Structures are given as C-alpha cells and as structure tokens.
C-alpha cells in the first residue's frame, strides 16, 4: 500500500526537475544557436557534479556556452587562459606578507586564485605545462586547494569545463590518460548548419548578446543534484555499463580480437560509474524516473572516447577511439 504514495512523490519530483531544467535549456538556447546535443551533455555533467572537456575549433561558442550556463544558475564564473608560462599559484592562489587585522602583527595572508569559483573555464588546458595542469586537476579531484601547508575547501558546486583545440598541437602538452579520466565527458563540437550559421551572424551583428537571467539559487541547484543521485539504477543497466567498460580492456578474457589488436588501455571502473550517472541524468532530462540501456548507448561516446587509448597499430590503420567505442556497441549484447 505504501508504494503508491512513494511512486507519486517520485513522479512529482521528476516533473519538477524536468520543468526546472527545461527553463534552463530555453534560457541557453536564447543565447547559443543550435548545439542542442552539446547543451544536453553539458547539463548532464553539471547535474551530476562532474567536469567536462570541450573539443572544437575556435569560434564555435564554447566560451559563450559556459558563461551562459553559469549565468543561468547564478554561479560565480571565472575563466583561466592556459599558457606555457602559467604557474600553479596563478590558479590556486598564493600567500603574501600582510598584517593581522586585530593585532597589526606581520602575518601571511592567503590570496585566493581564480579556481575559487563555482564554474571554472580552463581555456586550452593543454597549452599549460604539466605542473600547472596537475594543480588544476588536483583541485578538480579533491575539491580543495593546499597552499603553505593549509587546506582551503572549494565551495560546492565546483565544476570545471576545460577546452582543447583539436587543430593546433604545436607547443601543447597533451593531458595524460590518468588526468583525462577526471573528466566525465569529452564533448566534441561540430560546425553549425548553414541555417544556424545565418542565425548566428544575424544575432551577433544586432548588438551584444545578453546572458540568461538566473532562476536558481545555490540550494535549489544542490537539490537538483540530489534528485539525480537518488534515481534508482536497474541491475540490467548497471550490468550493461560494466560489460561495455570491461570489453574495452585488451587483457580482459572476454575482449574481442578487434579490441586486442587496436587498444592499448581500456576504460577503468570510473568509466562504468560515469556511464550510469550520465544515464540517470539523461533519463530525468527526458522526464523518466529510471534509466534504460538506450540511455547508456546515447552517452557512451563522450563518456568512453577519452578513456580508451588506441595503440600504435590503430594509429597506423587509421582507427580512432571513436571507432573503437562504436565497435563496442556492436560487439557487447544489450
């Protein structure tokens, strides 16, 4: 008898969630033309408290999209332009000599860096030296910064959206696979259609674009995240996610000949976790109370493409990580 009220409450929470997210979607589309799939994937990362890596050529509104997202949630937004001479302290902050406010005695005062924000845009993260990249990625993983032996927590929500230019690789420092694994998704952005490009030209030539007005506060957003985490995951969906990740590992006894021939390293357990989290958020975005296997299949490319490392033979044969992930979808039974 008690299941009926619980089901009703769950349905009401999902309807409220869908209504609120639909408002954000509409606000983002007022600023960003097209890019529907990219916006949905970004919202999936945001609603699960995860980080995202955007890959696309310059001029595809990556920065505008992230700024609009921060404005829609009324978050503190910072942008860090990564360059080879950027130092870790330029990101995390630093200590300098000051005076105590009460006694006037000399003391070390901490000056927070741009990482102390709710949404951080790490622009062209692969241009910074590995030491600086590590400082950024440590903040992403631990949700705090340690300077001068003291730990300073980063206020939730704390999300990082990093960008990479796929064309220009000279003078860059590619992120190691272990650091790429910190990102929930690697989202590839394509060129707009001719009709969309015409609309972009018309909008941008009519004056400065206005960012969406906020309809959320911090507590309301954290409540949305709790709704995503509370969604139950069917065992069959969890098993499918695990089978996909396991099948990508060349040393797995069930791996196919294709995987053994072309993969150096496959997806770890974090790949399975992120598939499930993304499927949960995707189901809620569609107004459903439980994810399905189809939800896993829809997000497998952005979730696994940066977790599957192609070997030298694959490079020689022109096989890319996207090809390998698509092969997994054909080989692993649903």
Quick description:
The protein has 334 residues and is of the alpha/beta class. It has helices at 3-31, 36-47, 62-73, 89-92, 130-142, 177-180, 194-204, 218-230, 235-247, 257-262, 269-285, 293-304, 312-317, 321-331; strands at residues 51-55, 77-81, 93-99, 106-112, 119-123, 144-147, 150-153, 159-164, 183-188, 263-265, 309-310. It has 2 domains: 1-230, Rossmann fold (3-Layer(aba) Sandwich); 232-334, Orthogonal Bundle (Helicase, Ruva Protein, domain 3), CATH 1.10.8.
List the helices and strands and how they pair.
Elements: H1 3-31, H2 36-47, E1 51-55, H3 62-73, E2 77-81, H4 89-92, E3 93-99, E4 106-112, E5 119-123, H5 130-142, E6 144-147, E7 150-153, E8 159-164, H6 177-180, E9 183-188, H7 194-204, H8 218-230, H9 235-247, H10 257-262, E10 263-265, H11 269-285, H12 293-304, E11 309-310, H13 312-317, H14 321-331
Parallel strand pairs: 1-8, 1-9, 2-5, 5-8
Antiparallel strand pairs: 3-4, 6-7, 10-11
Helix pairs in contact: 1-3, 2-11, 9-11, 11-12, 12-14
Explain what you see.
By secondary structure, this protein is α/β, with parallel strands linked by helices. It has 2 domains: 1-230, Rossmann fold (3-Layer(aba) Sandwich), CATH 3.40.50.300; 232-334, Helicase, Ruva Protein, domain 3 (Orthogonal Bundle), CATH 1.10.8.80. It is built from 14 helices and 11 strands. The chain has helices at 3-31, 36-47, 62-73, 89-92, 130-142, 177-180, 194-204, 218-230, 235-247, 257-262, 269-285, 293-304, 312-317, 321-331; strands spanning 51-55, 77-81, 93-99, 106-112, 119-123, 144-147, 150-153, 159-164, 183-188, 263-265, 309-310. Strands 2-5-8-1-9 form a 5-stranded parallel beta sheet. The protein has a two-stranded antiparallel sheet with strand order 3-4. The mean pLDDT is 86.
């Amino acid at each position: 008898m008690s299941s009926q009220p619980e089901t009703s409450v769950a349905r009401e929470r999902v309807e409220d969630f869908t209504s609120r997210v639909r408002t954000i979607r509409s606000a983002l589309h007022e600023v960003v033309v097209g890019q529907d799939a990219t916006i949905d994937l970004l919202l999936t990362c945001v609603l699960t408290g995860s980080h995202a890596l955007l890959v696309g050529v310059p001029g595809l509104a990556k920065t505008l999209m992230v700024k609009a997202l921060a404005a829609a949630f009324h978050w503190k937004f910072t942008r860090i332009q990564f360059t080879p001479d950027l130092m870790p302290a330029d990101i995390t902050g630093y200590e300098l000599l000051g005076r105590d406010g009460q006694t006037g005695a000399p003391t070390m005062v901490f000056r927070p860096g741009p990482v102390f924000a709710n949404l951080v845009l790490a622009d062209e993260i692969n241009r910074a030296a590995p030491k600086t990249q590590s400082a950024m990625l440590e903040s992403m993983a631990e949700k705090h910064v340690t300077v001068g032996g003291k730990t300073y927590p980063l206020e939730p929500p704390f999300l990082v959206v990093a960008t990479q230019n796929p064309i220009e690789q000279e003078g860059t420092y590619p992120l190691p696979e272990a650091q790429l694994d910190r990102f929930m998704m690697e989202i590839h952005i394509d060129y707009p259609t001719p009709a969309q490009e015409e609309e972009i030209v018309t909008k941008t030539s009519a004056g400065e674009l206005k960012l969406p007005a906020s309809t959320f506060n911090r507590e309301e957003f954290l409540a949305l995240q709790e709704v995503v985490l509370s969604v139950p995951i069917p065992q069959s969906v969890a098993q499918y996610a695990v089978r996909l990740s396991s099948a990508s590992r060349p040393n797995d006894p069930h791996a196919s000949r294709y995987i053994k021939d072309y993969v150096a390293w496959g997806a770890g357990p974090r790949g399975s976790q992120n598939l499930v989290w993304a499927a949960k958020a995707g189901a809620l975005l569609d107004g459903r109370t439980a994810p399905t296997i189809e939800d896993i299949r829809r997000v497998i490319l952005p979730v696994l493409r940066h977790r599957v490392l192609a070997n030298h033979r694959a490079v020689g044969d022109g096989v890319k990580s996207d090809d390998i992930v698509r092969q997994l979808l054909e080989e692993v039974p649903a």
